[in-house]
Each structure stands twice: as C-alpha cells, then as structure tokens.
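At this stage, I put together one protein's amino acid sequence and its backbone structure tokens, which the following lines show:
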Amino acid sequence: MTETHNRPFAGMDARRGHRGPVVREIRERLDLAAPPLDPDDFDQELDHAVRSFQQERRLLVDGIVGPSTYAALEASRWRLGDRLLQFSAGHLTRGDDVLELQERLLGLGFHPGRVDGTFGPDTDRAVREFQGGVGLEPDGSVGPATLGAFADLRRSVGGGAPASLRERELVRRSGHSLAGRVVVLDPGHGGDDLGAVAHGVVEAEVVHDIARRIEGRLSAQGATVFYTRTYTTSAGDDAARAAFANDCGADIVLSLHCDTADQPDASGVATFFFGQRRFGAWSAIGEQLADLIQRETVARTRMTDCRSHARAWSLLQHTRMPAVRIETGYLSNPDDAARLSDPGFRDDLAEGVVVALQRLYLGEQDTSNNTGVLRLGDLRKYMEELAG
C-alpha cells in the first residue's frame, strides 16, 4: 500500500437504520467475519460492533459513526510496514501504524512526543535520532531499512510511563505561577451550532459566558488567554480547534461543554483527558488537571460527581499540550439547567477551574486539603509567601 493520508470522511453520522455504500465501508473497516444478506444495511449487529469499537478506542459509545469514529476506523486500517511513513508539514499522517512506531521509539528510549498516532515534528526528530544511532541515513523516512533495524532491537524501557514522567517534569520545572502561562479556552459549538438546547438554556451561550469568567480570573493572575471562537462564530471541528491551540503554543487547553441525555434524571459534572490503552498514550498532566477540576467544581457546587475519564477524542488527542474537556452539567436535567442559568453558579465553576489550574502548578508545594473552599486570594497570598 502506498496511500499516505487519510481519506476524507465519507459518511456523516451513519447509524442504525441507515443504508448505502458507506455502511458497507464501515463493515469493511470493522472486518466483520460474516457479512449479512444486505451489507449496505446498518443493522443491529453492526450497531453492536460499532459500539464495541468505540468502547475499545475510548470514544463516545453511541453507535453513531460520525467524524471522530470514522477517523478512528480509518486509522485502524494501517499496520506498521503497510506504507512509507515520513513527516509532511501541513499534511500529517495519522494511523495505528504511527501509534506503533511511536510506541517502539518510546520503548527504545527516544522521545516521539505524545503517543497519539500523528506523525508530527517530534516523531520525525525521534526517527532521525534512532536512524543515526543505528548507522542509517537520518532521513526521517520509515521504510524497510528502518523497520528492519527496529526488528533487530528490543525495548530498553520496561514498564513505567516515560512520557508521563517527562510531562510531569516539564510542568515541575516551569514554576508555580500562572503569570506568563498561555491558556486556550474552547467554548464548545458556536456560530450556527448552538449545541444542546433545553429548558430555555443554550449550550453555546452558557459555555462562552463561563469561559469569559475564567478568562477574567486568569488574566488577573497574569496569564494570556486565547479563545477558539467568539460569541457569535464557530472555531470549526475539533481538529481545527486543536490546530489553533498548537499554533498558539498553549500550555493548557480547557474545552467547555454542557451535556444532554434522553433520561432527564441524568445530571452532574464530568471531566475528560487524553488516554488510550497503548504504551505511552496517556496525558499524566491532563489526568491530574482533570481530577483537580473535578474535585474543585464538585466541592463548590455540590453537583453530582460523574468523575474524570480518559478519552481519545480528537481535541484531547491532537493537542500537543495537556487538554481537559469539562462537561458542566446536563441541560436535559431541569435542576442542572436552572443552576447553569444562574450567574453565581457560573462564577463558582470558573473559580473552581482556575483554582485547580493554580494547584496543578503548585505541585508538591500544594499542601492544602481544603478542596472547594480555597479562593484565588488565598492562593495569591500563599504564592507571595513562597516567593518571599
């Protein structure tokens, strides 16, 4: 195979009951053993297979093949050695073969960046270092010679999480202050996409207002804040939002959303960070920040604790810096919707998020157990004492 780049998404939001060539394509990607009488029919068996695939890949398990699930299906086509791999700026190659390459580099002590299945500049640099180390021309091209060199070597890093340790060390060395940090705020949806709408509350409006309150607190601490969108416009899909954050050179990305469910009893706050069941494919700082935000917001608001979860959603996976998605409540739940309509509640959420971010950078210096009651003023005094 010589194909270098993923094909564009061919079937928007295919789900059970749909028919057509895209359904046959989905079956081929899942490699179902026994095709049905009508392979173009999205039947119950295919729905189950899609949900199992989504569960395995840490995607939203809804049985719907939208852009994220289709991208994961497309990535799953490739095994290391199926095609020539190399870095191409502006046309980054993605796939499971890149994931395997990154795992092998990391296991041999080279640093390919985040193990995210994207052949970016860090992976290119690691490939060239590996090639130079084994006596090959360091051209960054992963072909037969480089693959043969991999086959002759065994993993030198056993167990542990070298990428996570490196990520933690970078944060530790960066200092305690929020001053000088670059934070990208990503209020979900925008433009013509209003997101969830229920009980008179519009997701796109709510999360933009919460982002504005977070920005005010971060700016007061000396941080620089960029938005992925304005109040009336959209930033595009998750891939475009991730690219924007990468171009900004952000330290942290915070993506804000509201949830919805068919059952009106569903309620609560949840946070998400990047993580896959692959060697090194885990954001340790993302996990730590998601946990801090979860604990701070739940303690302040008394919302139901829906906990923190690892996911491989596009925005979380393709940002080069730690990213956390915050689901601030269920608009389908009348109590959550009423609270999200309250400016005071939004202030509590914003305060909790910024306190959590400050506690992340305090690291070992954060000896307080007072989760949910610390104010930014308290932390500011503590920072002054540390500096003095």
